[in-house]
Amino acid sequence: MRGKDNRLPNPITRGFLGVIGNEKRQSISIPLFAILLSLVAASIVILLLGKNPLTAITSFLQGSGILPKPDYAAKKSILTDFMSMINMWTPMIFAALAVAVALKTGLFNIGVSGQMLVAGFVATITVGYSNLPAAIAMPLVLVIGLVCGGAVGALIGWLKHKFNINEVVTSIMLNYIFQYVTSYFINSYYVNPVSRQSQPISQAARLTLVDVNIASLGLKMDIPLAFLLTIPVAILVLFLLNRTRLGYELKIVGLNQKAAKYAGIKVGRSMVSSMAISGALAGLAGVTLYLGYYNSIQPRVLTSVGFDSIAVCLLGNSHPIGILFSSLLISIISKGSNYMSSIMGVPQEIAQVITGLILLFSACGAYIRFRVAQAREDFPGKKLKPRAQKVKEGGDEA
Amino acid sequence: MNTVIIDGLAFAIPLFIIAIGGIYSERSGVTNLALEGFLGFGAFFGAAAVMVLTGGNLAGIEIPMFFAALAFAMIGGALFAMLHALLCVPFKANQVISGVVINILATALTAFFTSQINTYLLGKPTNKFVLGICERFTVPVISKIPVLGAFFTDVYYFIPIIIVVALFMTYMLYKSRFGLRLRACGDNPHAVDAAGGNVSRTRFIAVMISGALSGLGGICFAYSISSSFSPSIYAGYGFLAIAALIFGNWKIGPTLAACLFFGFARSGGHQLTQTLSLPSAFQDVISILPYVLTLLLLVFFSSTNRAPRALGEIYDKGKR
Amino acid sequence: MDEFIVEMRNITKRFPGIVANDDVSIAVKKGEVFALLGENGAGKSTLMSMLFGMYEPDEGEILVRGEKVKISSPAHATQLNIGMVHQHFKLVENYTITENIVLGQEPRSRFLGFLPAVDIKGSNKKIAELSKRYGLEVDPKKKIEDINVSTRQRVEILKMLYREAEILIFDEPTAVLTPQEIDFLLDIIRGLRDSGKTIILITHKLEEIKKVADRCAVLCRGKLVGVMDVATTSTKTMANMMVGREVSFGIDKNPANFGEEVLRVEKLTVKNQDGLSVVKNVSFSVRKGEIFAIAGVSGNGQTELADAVTGLLNSSGKVFLQGKDISGYDVRQRTLEGISYIPEDRQAVGLVLDFSLEENLALKEYFKEPFCKKGVLHSEAFDEQGERLVKEYDIRSGQGIKTIVRSMSGGNQQKAIIAREIELDSRLMIFVQPTRGLDIGAIENIHKQILALRDAGKAILLISLELDEIIGLADTIGVMYSGEMLNIAPAETLSTNQVGEYMMGVKAV
Question: With an 8 Å Cβ cutoff, is B318 touching chain C?
Answer without folding.
Answer: yes
